[in-house]
Amino acid sequence: MKRKLAAGNWKMNGTNATLGELQTLTAAHPDPRIDILICPPATLIVQAAALTADGPLMIGGQDCHTAPSGAHTGDISAPMLADAGASAVLIGHSERRENHHETNALVADKATSAWSAGLTAVICLGETLAQREAAQTLDVIATQLDASLPGGATGANTVIAYEPVWAIGTGLTPTTAQIAEVHDFLRARLADRLGEPGANAIRLLYGGSVKPANAAKIFAISNVDGALVGGASLKSSDFSPIISALEQA
Ligand code: PGA
Description:
Layout: E1 5-9, H1 20-28, E2 35-39, H2 45-52, E3 57-61, H3 78-84, E4 88-91, H4 94-99, H5 104-116, E5 120-125, H6 129-133, H7 137-148, E6 158-162, H8 176-201, E7 203-207, H9 212-219, E8 226-229, H10 236-248
Helix pairs in contact: 1-10, 5-7, 7-8, 9-10
The structure holds 2-phosphoglycolic acid.
């Protein structure tokens, strides 16, 4: 049985003072029935990994460069993340796709570089509001999945996060039927490429305004294997009930 995954994306939030949230989370979930991943800003990865080394929390990066090293001022490579203590990295988050003009091809190259460093790639995709209103959602998802996921994906090296852009940080969430439609579609599309056992091994996360109040409802949806949580992952008092809801799903 694959373990479900609660992933927190702190984005550009958090300083030394925030790291206490990790200890509170560990104390609240010393032996969780699910995997828990926190992606703090890069400045905190070394300390976060050291603080959580003996507990169940895993630490991840929020982005990586395609190259292992080189003249890329300001960038961080996948082997550097691994060296800092990360075991996973978010790739192709919509804020990276939009703010840094990341293409599907670049996302695929980053995933390959994450795998080479031994990191699990959490590949993010999702439609904009305009695309949903134009009834293009499944076409957009298909294109993003096909072009962002390199060959060689397994349940160990890859997680897919469906995050509708219009649901991120807005308090809006798709209906249960809308989430189910995309997740069922993703599973089937993965099965076309990887076969059913391969597709079933890959965890599909939903992301976008997941909160304690809506978590249980979202986790009951077919083919939802967990969540990628932004705002509600910053405080253990919000993230902990989401973890508990996923454990009980
Ligand atoms: P949110 O962000 O939970 O604050 O909507 C989700 C994400 O961007 O991963």
